[in-house]
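Team,

Forwarding the record for the chain on the shared tracking sheet. I've put the sequence and predicted structure together so nobody has to dig through attachments.
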Amino acid sequence: MILYLHGFTSGPQSMKARILGERAAQRDREFVCPQLPHSPKAAIALAETLISEKVGAGGTAAVVGSSLGGYYATYLAEKHRLRAVLVNPAVVAHVALEQFIGPQQNLYSGEHFDFTREHIAELRALEVPRLSHPENFWLLVETGDEVLDYRQAVARYAGARQTIIKGGDHSFTRWADCLDQVIAYTDEHPV
């Protein structure tokens, strides 16, 4: 199973989620992309339920996360020894998202919600201080990311496989070019 974790105020309808899901289906790979709850604690609980159901049934799981989803994917991959692909990930989410405390709206569903200091505390609790198996991670960043500084991710994921593409933006404009490689990477067994 490829578990795709979307970013802050995003959802399964995002371009990255949709085209990865389509390509996974073409390759007969199970693809799951839930609408994540606004609470980081609840989002992780949902993801862990999906992972445990798959692994408990004798299957395998890998995570692909974009932006905030990359932060979640890091936590899950470390805790459960999974392969992870991180796309323009939030490196220190509790710091990066502090500026968004207050009313928010989901880009796809239109749902309104309040992002709170409690959510920031939940993010802080998910921080992975050091990767124990950087070889289980593949970092994909574009240098033109206008939301997050790609250099923080490059430093944070030292020792991991890294693809750094000049230009682009936070949406990761070259995503379609990476789909087959991402699926192949998630097929590999974690170290």
